[in-house]
# Entry
Amino acid sequence: MERYKSAEKIYAAYGVNTEKAIEKIGSIPISVHCWQGDDVTGFDSGEALSGGIQTTGNYPGKARTPEELMEDIDKAFSLIPGIKKLNLHASYAVFDGEPADRDALRPEHFAKWVDFAKKRGIGLDFNPTFFSHPMVKDNLTLTSPDENVRKFWVEHGRRCLEISEYFAAETGFPCQMNIWIPDGYKDLPADRLSPRLRYIKSLDEILSVPYDKSKVYVTLESKVFGIGLESYTAGSAEFTLSYAMKAGIVPLMDNGHYHPTELVSDKISSLLAFNDKIALHVTRGVRWDSDHVTLFDDETREMMKEIVRNDALDRVLIATDYFDASVNRISAWVTGVRNVRKALLFALLEPSEQMKKLQDASDFTALMALGEEIKTLPFGDVWEEYLERCGLKNSYIDEIKDYEEKVLSKRR
Ligand code: RNT
Ligand code: ZN
# Structure
C-alpha cells in the first residue's frame, strides 16, 4: 500500500492515473483456452493430437476427464485476476449417453460446460475441431478434394455454429467461434489455388446457415505452416484476411503463426483500420509456432500497447493459446494469462497521449528517451496493488505446489 501510494505519485508526474488503470484492467475479458489442461486431447475421439500441432512433455497430473479438467480450470481461475471467458473446442464434448460424431454434435453435448459457465457467471467461446479425427484425410478437411470428407467437415462447422448460439443464449455473453483448419501439404504442391477455392466454398456453406451476428462472432485464424505441413497452408494470412473482409467475419491473428521476424504488434493497427473487430491468440513462439507459455515479454507488451493506444479494448477479442506439458499445467495457465493482463496494465500505464504528440512533432529524440525512462517506473507496485484488491498475491507457486500434492499427484 505504501509502495503503491508512492508509485501513484510517480506515475501522476507523467500524467498517468493509476487508479483509472486499475479500474479498467479487471474489466477486460480474456478468453482462456481449456486445452492447456489436457494437452489438447479432448474427450470425444480418443485419437492422438494431429493437425500439425504438438504438445511436448509429460509432466504428471494431466486432466483425464471433464471433471478433472473443470476442477483444474477452477484452480487456475482462482489465481487469475480479472474477467475471464472459457474457450472450448468441439472435441471437449461431454457425452452422457450415446457419443456423437463431429458432424452430429448438438448443444446438449455441451450442457455440462454451460452449467459450469453459468455457475461461475462467465462466458464461453468455441472452436470447431478440424483435427485429431479419422475424417481428416491426407491432412485435409474443408479443402479436401474428396466431397465426403469436405461435406463432413462443413456439417461440423454448421453444428458448431448452432452450439455457439446456444452458448451465447445460455450464458448471456456473446460467443466467439473461431475457425482454424490445419489443411496443407508437407511438400511442394502442384496446385495451390484449388484447395483455397474449396476452402472458400466450404466456409460459404458453413456461414450460409443464418446466425445472430450480434451474439456469435465468427473469427478465422490464419497460419503459415504446421509440423508435417511445412510447404503449404491453405489458410494463409492473405487468404484469411481476404475471406474475412469479403464475408464480414472477424480475422484472427495468432502470434505464433508468422515468420519469426514478423510481429503481430505491427499488424494490429492495419487490421483495426479495416475491421470493426479483430481477434488475437496470444502465445509465444520459440523459433517456430511452438506454443510456449506467454511471458511478460517485449512482444506481449507491444501487442497490448497497440490495443490500448488505439483505444480498441472493446474491438479486440483477446484469447490465449498455448500448450505446455513440460511444466505444471495449472501454473502454465496462471502464468500465461496473468502475463497478458499484466501487459495490458503496463500498456494502460503508458503516457501514450504525450508520446503521440512527440511523434507528430517529429521529436524522436524525446520519444526514445521517454520510452526508455518509463520502462523502469515502479510498475510492479501497481500490479501488486491490483492483485491485492483482487485478494491475490504476486507469488502463486506455493498454491500450485499444494494443489499438485493434494490433487494432481493422485492422478495415476
Ligand atoms: C493451431 C492454432 C489453433 C490451435 C487450437 C487448439 O496452430 O493456433 O488455434 O492452437 O485451436
Ligand atoms: Zn491459435
Notes: The pocket of L-rhamnitol (ligand 1) is lined by residues 35, 40, 53, 127, 180, 221, 223, 254, 281, 289, 321 (CB under 6 Å). The mean pLDDT is 98. The first helix runs from residue 2 to 12. The CA atoms of residues 294 and 372 lie 23 Å apart.
